[in-house]
Amino acid sequence: MTTDDLLARHRAVLPSWMPLYYAEPLELVAGSGRRVTDAAGRSYLDFFGGVLTNMIGYDIPEIREAVQRQLGTGLVHSSTLYLIRQQVELAEKVARVSGIPDARVFFTNSGTEANEAALLVATNHRRSHQILAVRNSYHGRSYAAMGVTGNRGWSASALNPLQVAWLHSGERLRGLLARLDADDRVEAAVEDLREVLATQTAGDVAALIAEPIQGVGGFTHGPDGLFAAWKKVLDEHGILLISDEVQTGWGRTGEHFWGYQAHGVTPDLLTFAKGIGNGFALAGVVGRAEVLEAVPAISFSTFGGNPVSTAAGNAVLDYLLDHDLQANAARVGAILGDGLRAATAGLDRVAEVRGKGLMLAVEFVRPGTVEPDPELTTRVFEACRAGGLLVGKGGLHGNVVRMGPPLTLTEDEAREGLAILVDAIRSCVEETA
Question: Do 6-60+324-431 and 63-323 have matching folds?
């Protein structure tokens, strides 16, 4: 069966709103290290990691063996109505590294479910369905998670169980705050928060949910310290802070283990997903006990924290810490980030190279403006594939190339991918000059 046959079958039985990358979609059939192989036998260096999910890479012995040991018991699932040793051990580790005092952990299957659970907890704790969210954000595809997603392209329904008020993100390229320097943007963002609370809410807001770096939004972010400045105001009103760490967690930014730590603040609730399972469905929310316990009825996740996924999660977190992959993200991410900035410094089609560690993005615009150029972005995206490199796309306007390689990426692989990416950018810019 050819890839064309599989594509036809895909289109016949799966919904059209499920996107496929590339003009000629790929079927990936194998992976090793930081490389994947397609059905035609071609190998690619993977700089997107299943959307930042294959955090340790592919076919990692320690993770494979942990999963095989659990499979060998014959017990794949028991439900959380029974004690699960792997789940308890992973919860202890997550609580310990979360930075949240007296922490409790609830496991789910995805980042969407984790954010939904955090919203459930926060609204119960505060007895309010009012939520603050941030423009250009993404928090998932379920009902409430879509309700706090500030990106029209990912909001599949206008219906909302929450009352949401929107804050400016403080990003550097566009928006009302972009014209200000970093310190002034923080001050202006605080003024914006106070005005929103006074004019768009009844006062008893449950929580602010925010990503330290906006993932689907194109890796945009406000100045460091923004969360702390927001939290001073939130604390005046008893409003909780939820840090959505689905994409920023586990040391990916290099400088910190969690994105929130760049702001000098500790959130009340933290959501995690993606990389902790390294491809196995695993996510959750961790928070202060008094907050996470604020659920007045029975609630559990049938598959959340199941024996196989948490066996993988334990192996992933142990590997991450034992090999200090946060330091690797900082070191190897600097090769990529610095290299991209140097290579694109004179190109007026590149508005910004941004991000931290191994969470990097390049935004493309029309010459001499900040007008988004999604067409050029698509050409660069396809050219990277032609050169043997897989990257991601994103941004509010679809004009951002995103990179979130496995945290095990080597310096040589970083330079290899950088060369392919720079060649793709230069050749595509020249073609459109």
Answer: no
User: 363-402: per-residue pLDDT in tens?
Assistant: 999 998 999 999 999 999 999 999 999 999 999 999 999 9
d(CA 283, CA 270): 11
CB 233 within 8 A of CB 193: yes
- What count of residues does the chain have? 433
**CA proximity to 134, closest of 241, 8, 4:** 241
Q: What is the pLDDT of residues 311-342, one digit of tens each?
A: 999 999 999 999 999 999 999 999 999 999 99
Domain limits, the chain:
6-60+324-431, 63-323
Please give the average per-residue pLDDT across 334-363, as a whole number.
Answer: 97
Rounded-to-integer distance, Cα 146 and Cα 125, Å? 21
Give me 127's structure tokens. 């007895």
Helix (H) or strand (E) holding 430: helix 411-431
Rounded to whole angstroms, the Cα distance separating 336 from 151 reads 28
Give the CATH class of 6-60+324-431: alpha beta
Distance CA 385, CA 379 (A): 10
356 SS3 class:
strand
Whose CA is closest to 130, among 106, 153, 160, 170? Answer: 160
Q: 63-323 adopts what CATH topology?
A: Aspartate Aminotransferase; domain 2 (3.40.640)
**Alpha-helix runs per DSSP H in 73-126:** 85-98, 111-126
Whole-number pLDDT of residue 288: 97
Q: Which two tokens stand for residue 359?
A: 């969470």
